[in-house]
Amino acid sequence: MSVSTPPGTPAPGPVVGFDLDLTLIDTVPGIAAVLEALARELEVDLPVAELTRRLGPPLDHMLAPHLPPEQVGPAGDRFRALYPDLAVAPTPALPGAHEALAAVRAHGGRTVVVTGKYAPNAQRHLDHLGLDVDVLEGWVWGVGKAEALRREGATVYVGDHVHDVEGARAAGVLSVSVLTGGCTRSELEDAGTDVVLDDLTDFPAWFDEHLLTTRVAALEERLRGLGSVLVAFSGGADSALVLAAAVRVLGADHVVAATGHSDSLPQAERGPAEAFADALGVRLVTPRTHEMDRPAYRANAGDRCFACKAELLDTLVPLAARLGLAAVTTGTNADDLVAGFRPGIRAAAERGAVTPLADAGLTKAQVREVSRRWGLPTWDKPAAACLSSRVAYGVEVTPHGLARVERAEAAVRATLAAASVPVRDLRVRDLGGDRASVEVDAVLLDGPLRSGAGARDAVLAGVREAGFAVADLDPRGFRSGSMNERLPDPERWR
């Protein structure tokens, strides 16, 4: 799969098509009731059990063998007229239908129902059962479904019939079949389906794995296409996965890791980053960055992150050129592109940085899962933003101030460790005027760090000893990017 998403552009969410009858809903009882009523009106003997055994073909195809040609059209019209009163209420959703649609939406995707059923009646079923879909395309059958699937950008089509397989194949999308219709596994496989599931209860797990696999493949292809890379390596989970993937695809001789050293990089992050690169056999360079020399960075308005990332890329891009490397990559993931206030991403994009994780659509959760499978020690590493992210906007960033924040966080961690209180996420926020707010995992606030607890008093005392005259625990707990809540008019800085 070729990836050509411009840097800084969110990868599109997945689009999945679903058939309706016997894929999402069990229409056999309802259709049988309508056919029986139609047979009584027409005074003909329709083999209802046979006709409902393998639903899928258009109604006219079903009726044609049993009625004179001139009656087929009018009989179909009457069927559709009877349908709302007789077929909608008794038709249930099949097991897993709601969960399958939700699984697509959970990945930021869209769902498209492409069915041979008369569209108004199909919509009645969706509304009655609360099946939330984005697009409904009715009265299309077999290869005719391909046009709608292509138009909506679907990459997967789920159905129960061999003709659903034909539609998927004609559209060039992955065919997923469920055994809730009348077709057997062997019939579906002979028709060329790619995947067979017992029913839609198996779909969410399959879909999660499918996306993970295809996105990792896209990541590797993206890196392979670059040929050689300088990885902006912070030591966090995202850039660590980029580095590991680049080594897998390109070989260590075509990859260099670069960690910018400055006052904003915690000392505690430097050793683990060096060990990680060494374990991969990758050369690590540590150029000094000088963001403090940029007035916009020190002023710490809404464009601080822009100034920081600009300094990093202005350092790494010429370094990559001197090392003969084709591109500079960052660890920006797909979630970052839709997370709101991220001026640093724009600065990197303007300087030509490549974002292979985001280009491949890999989310933070998927980054962690791939890292876990690959045995990377960073798979569950807590987020570790730069020290400047702890300083309230409008408060000048200085080396002294950053060192004070780092001392305070170290004191809090040491205090909690001594009290046998595990903490995952921790930030000491410099609010200005020698005031600090401490953010920890929210679950601790009603436990060992509740009001009046000795551990709480010890934590705040450690922060004061680090140089803050006033300190308190944030009652809302840790929140990534909480300083953005204090920034007026963030749109100005995008």
Automatic annotation (TrEMBL):
Residues 217-355 form the Asparagine synthetase domain. GO terms for molecular function: asparagine synthase (glutamine-hydrolyzing) activity; sulfurtransferase activity. One of its GO terms (biological process) is asparagine biosynthetic process. Transmembrane segments: none annotated. It holds the Pfam family Asn_synthase. This is Asparagine synthetase domain-containing protein. The lineage of its organism: Bacteria, Bacillati, Actinomycetota, Actinomycetes, Propionibacteriales.
